[in-house]
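Hi Q.,

Before the meeting this afternoon, I wanted you to have the threonylcarbamoyladenylate prediction in hand. No need to reply - just skim if you have a minute. The sequence and ligand are here:
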Amino acid sequence: MSRSVKRVKGTLLLRDDRGSIKIAAKIIQSGGLVAFPTETVYGLGASAMNEKALRKIFTAKGRPPDNPLIVHLSSTKQLDSVARNIPREAYILASAFWPGPLSMVLPGADNLSPLVSAGLKTVAVRMPDQKAALSLIETSGVPIAAPSANLSGSPSPTTYRHVLDDLAGSIDAVIMSNSCTIGLESTVLDLSGPSPIILRPGGLPREDLEAVLGQKVLVSGSLYKPDSPSSPGMKYRHYTPRAPLILITGPRERRYRAVKTVFKHLTSKGYLVGLLNTQVHRRIACEADAEYLAANLYRALRQFDAEGVDLILAEETVSTGLGLAIMNRLRKAAVRIIKV
Ligand code: TXA
Ligand code: MG
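Predicted structure with the ligand bound:
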């Protein structure tokens, strides 16, 4: 069968079809790196059982070695190969939310590579809700470790073009798709301690977890304190566009006036200002639509950079539902938070 092969700087572009998934699976099995779509963001996958391949992930992304990786599964049967002493809650949550945007932190299996867990005694696992992703894991026959497929520190990729912008030439292949419908990473829930705790708010709202568990679920208190992270990844400044982002918090009317004033002032001085989720110019979203904002946030941040924006203004949004994850990303992306 002849298949026209397209490459960008040596990175193979694969279609989202059966034949291409087989090629991608072969690359994973032979220790290579494949970027694949999930319902949250693109992942940069390697066999979770291959140390050499895992090391390549850290090199390609420029990822600090003490930041552990999420292991992606296509079946709950694979849980025992990476985790042990799995609590009952994990099975309850898996049956309610998998496949879906929930990563659960569980005690790690004894033979788990320290590169996956970054030396912790735990492992984060999730089953993505995306056909190509599930098919890739299944065809590869191994659990796939995958961080987001961006350079460390830049906004997570929600299309294959974003992946190529960051990683063309340093990964073997990318599966082309534009189906990261949620647009923000999974919720990371720690089930390895005495009570469930959210380490990273994400695509699965806290309220949904509480409804199924029948109890309050705490959000790690260290979310906004980089010096005492509960999840290693939380101490790094993530999600950052090149242009400085200023987040305006406070009551709606005052926020509105502040954004308007700052915007006018800066544009009169000749600066190019990107307005994110503000009522002043409904650039990409408005407060009421958290789903839309989540789905477009990273794309907008990357677009502002491509347009050469000097500064980005964003407004506080609600802290319920997806809003919790959006506010977490905005706070981490911000160089300054102004309370009005
Ligand atoms: O939606 C997602 O979760 C995407 C897609 C590709 O699945 N993946 C993703 O991976 O966002 P990454 O590596 O960018 O973020 C993983 C987060 C980091 O904050 C990391 O520190 C945390 O999960 N994490 C991973 N394993 C952990 C563990 N054993 N204990 C605590 N936190 C862990
Ligand atoms: Mg990431």
